[in-house]
């Protein structure tokens, strides 16, 4: 049960995800310029904002565990990216689990410029049932020490029995 254990902080559980989506240069982990990595590539690139609206933002926010769409800033709101522009003409229904499931031109060839890099501002942080969960002290929003909010304070999760399903 929560709060009842014999663990010490050397046993804090951690997570590193292998996501192909990240937010860069935002004011918190749930806002920023959208960057994706295509399947089989280590190269991060941006998404063109030409058809970008709240449906696409909603999918990104849900995928990253950041609640729902807050706003869909245009014009490289969080700065211009570099490298490839991997997605253009993105068209989500709003029910997809990942941005990569949305219809889009994903060939990396388009007539977009980095001044059109898509951005998101999500409504909140991740909530699971009534418990709040976050990752802290990691290199990005998809890695770090697992913490749970319980009885008005944040605490760590013990790694006893911790595995991939967790």
TrEMBL record:
Molecular function terms, GO-annotated: serine-type endopeptidase activity
Entry GO CC: extracellular space; plasma membrane
Record domain SRCR: where: 21-123, 133-166
InterPro entries membership: SRCR, SRCR-like_dom_sf
GO BP of this protein: zymogen activation
Gene3D superfamilies xref list: SRCR-like domain (3.10.250.10)
Annotated disulfide bonds: 48-112, 61-122, 92-102
Alphabetical list of Pfam families matching this protein: SRCR
Source superkingdom: Eukaryota
Main location: secreted
Subcellular compartments: Secreted
Protein name in the entry: SRCR domain-containing protein
């Amino acid at each position: 049960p929560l709060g009842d254990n014999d663990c010490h902080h050397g046993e804090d559980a951690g997570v590193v995800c292998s996501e192909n989506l990240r937010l860069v240069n935002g004011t918190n982990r749930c806002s920023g310029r959208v960057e994706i990595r295509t399947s089989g590539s280590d190269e991060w690139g941006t998404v063109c904002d030409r058809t970008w609206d709240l449906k696409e933002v909603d999918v990104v926010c849900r995928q990253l565990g950041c609640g729902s769409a807050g706003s869909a800033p245009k014009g490289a709101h969080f700065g211009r990216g570099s490298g490839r522009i991997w997605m253009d003409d993105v068209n989500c229904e709003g029910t997809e689990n990942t941005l990569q499931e949305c219809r889009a031109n994903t060939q990396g060839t388009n007539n977009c410029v980095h001044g059109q890099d898509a951005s998101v501002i999500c409504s909140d942080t991740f909530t699971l049932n009534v418990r709040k969960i976050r990752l802290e002290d990691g290199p990005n929003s998809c890695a770090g020490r697992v913490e749970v909010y319980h009885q008005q304070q944040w605490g760590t999760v013990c790694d006893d029995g911790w595995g991939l399903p967790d």
